[in-house]
TrEMBL record:
<dbReference type="InterPro" id="IPR036477">
    <property type="entry name" value="Formyl_transf_N_sf"/>
</dbReference>
<feature type="site" description="Raises pKa of active site His">
    <location>
        <position position="144"/>
    </location>
</feature>
<feature type="active site" description="Proton donor">
    <location>
        <position position="108"/>
    </location>
</feature>
<feature type="binding site">
    <location>
        <begin position="89"/>
        <end position="92"/>
    </location>
    <ligand>
        <name>(6R)-10-formyltetrahydrofolate</name>
    </ligand>
</feature>
<feature type="domain" description="Formyl transferase N-terminal">
    <location>
        <begin position="2"/>
        <end position="181"/>
    </location>
</feature>
<comment type="pathway">
    <text>Purine metabolism; IMP biosynthesis via de novo pathway; N(2)-formyl-N(1)-(5-phospho-D-ribosyl)glycinamide from N(1)-(5-phospho-D-ribosyl)glycinamide (10-formyl THF route): step 1/1.</text>
</comment>
<feature type="binding site">
    <location>
        <position position="64"/>
    </location>
    <ligand>
        <name>(6R)-10-formyltetrahydrofolate</name>
    </ligand>
</feature>
<feature type="binding site">
    <location>
        <position position="106"/>
    </location>
    <ligand>
        <name>(6R)-10-formyltetrahydrofolate</name>
    </ligand>
</feature>
<dbReference type="InterPro" id="IPR004607">
    <property type="entry name" value="GART"/>
</dbReference>
<dbReference type="Pfam" id="PF00551">
    <property type="entry name" value="Formyl_trans_N"/>
</dbReference>
<dbReference type="InterPro" id="IPR002376">
    <property type="entry name" value="Formyl_transf_N"/>
</dbReference>
<keyword id="KW-0658">Purine biosynthesis</keyword>
<feature type="binding site">
    <location>
        <begin position="11"/>
        <end position="13"/>
    </location>
    <ligand>
        <name>N(1)-(5-phospho-beta-D-ribosyl)glycinamide</name>
    </ligand>
</feature>
<protein>
    <recommendedName>
        <fullName>Phosphoribosylglycinamide formyltransferase</fullName>
        <ecNumber>2.1.2.2</ecNumber>
    </recommendedName>
</protein>
<keyword id="KW-0808">Transferase</keyword>
<comment type="function">
    <text>Catalyzes the transfer of a formyl group from 10-formyltetrahydrofolate to 5-phospho-ribosyl-glycinamide (GAR), producing 5-phospho-ribosyl-N-formylglycinamide (FGAR) and tetrahydrofolate.</text>
</comment>
<comment type="similarity">
    <text>Belongs to the GART family.</text>
</comment>
Length: 191
């Protein structure tokens, strides 16, 4: 099973997925990195693995359809089966969604439908919830609105800082994402 990772940032989830493949826990292959941030840390990590990449700057294009058309070409050239968003800070448009129906997944650092969008960790702290966590979901045209595939909770301890909660959530993301991708690959749409 051939995966493309879409990422805009640090790439710790990319690394966790890559690691799970290397240990045999996840039976898949990462064949392409797509990033909309030419300076992102994730690119250095992908380069260490000599991973093929498509890096673009949205400012160089008239609209989303234009750069997503190029992305689709790259995905097809690399025969990608699944698109795994790992901190890709951009809404996916119809060009990609129509070509990869129920084949695009995302991970979000809250228990959706609570706290969609930017700074989910900050939003959770602000709201004073005692429980937050992470959600893996199919991607649709909305902001973190697609059908939920898997969730895991994290207890918000009194006085916890944003960084502490983020670290705690990312720790479980790094386990849950590879595990869930493996289940999806094995069971397809049936779970
Ligand atoms: C993750 O916490 C994920 O939930 C969110 O963006 C973050 C990406 O982190 N969508 P990283 O780039 O994988 O380290």
């Amino acid at each position: 099973t051939r995966l493309a990772i879409f990422a805009s940032g640090t790439g710790s989830n990319y690394q966790a997925i890559d690691q799970a493949i290397k240990t045999g826990e996840l039976d898949a292959e990462i064949v392409l990195l797509v990033s909309d941030q030419p300076g992102a840390k994730v690119i250095e990590k992908a380069d260490e693995n000599q991973l093929a990449k498509f890096i673009f700057d949205p400012k160089d294009y008239q609209n989303k359809c234009e750069f997503e058309t190029e992305i689709v070409n790259e995905l097809q050239a690399h025969q990608v089966d699944w698109i795994v968003l790992a901190g890709y800070m951009r809404l996916v448009g119809p060009t990609l969604l129509n070509q990869y129906q129920r084949r695009i997944i995302n991970i979000h650092p809250s228990l959706l439908p609570a706290f969609p969008g930017l700074d989910a960790v900050g939003q959770a702290l602000e709201a004073g919830v005692k429980l937050s966590g992470t959600t893996i979901h199919y991607v649709d045209s909305g902001m973190d609105t697609g059908e939920i595939i898997a969730q895991e909770s994290v207890r918000v301890k009194p006085g916890m800082t944003r960084e502490e909660l983020q670290t705690a959530i990312q720790k479980i993301e790094h386990e849950l994402y590879p595990k869930t991708i493996q289940r999806l690959i094995l069971e397809g749409d049936s779970f």
